[in-house]
Amino acid sequence: MQNILFFGDSLTAGYGLRDHRSESFPALIQQKIDALGLPYHCINGGLSGDTTSGGLMRLDYWLNRPLHVFVLELGVNDIIRGISPQSTFQNLQAIIDRVKLKYPGIKMLMMGMEIPAFIPGAFAANFKAIFRKLADVNQIACVPFYLDGVAGKSHLNLADMLHPNAAGYRVMADKIWPDLKRLL
Asked: Known catalytic residues?
């Protein structure tokens, strides 16, 4: 059995779901893997509220187990806290570097995020560009905006309009699955 680590924040953890063990997007991806009989085990390494610097600090805990695929979903909490896109980029690059150092042959998938429409201008554009640039520079797969089709849709989100509900996570999993399946 090969391990897939989903390393992220509340969007990975399944914040606000009745049962994150069955409704979060890592759990839904596991269901797709099981349906195809693929030899992979999904590990949910999501931590609500985590930033890229927090992720970097807790990374070693997760690297102390055999990993074959690493799905990186961090960055949106940096924006919420006003952390510069440059710092976010540097922290994500450091995470990628440490993962590749520990597991040189690991397959990686970058989960891209876009800034909500209420944050205008160059800041939003610079933030959006981080994920594609990191994917290109490091030659890793990328889902450009993994909340595409979910963000801003009240019927797919919790009341806070920041976190998907169970239906929203199903849309996310369906969006992510083709890119992840190609890696497997």
From this structure: 10, 160, 163
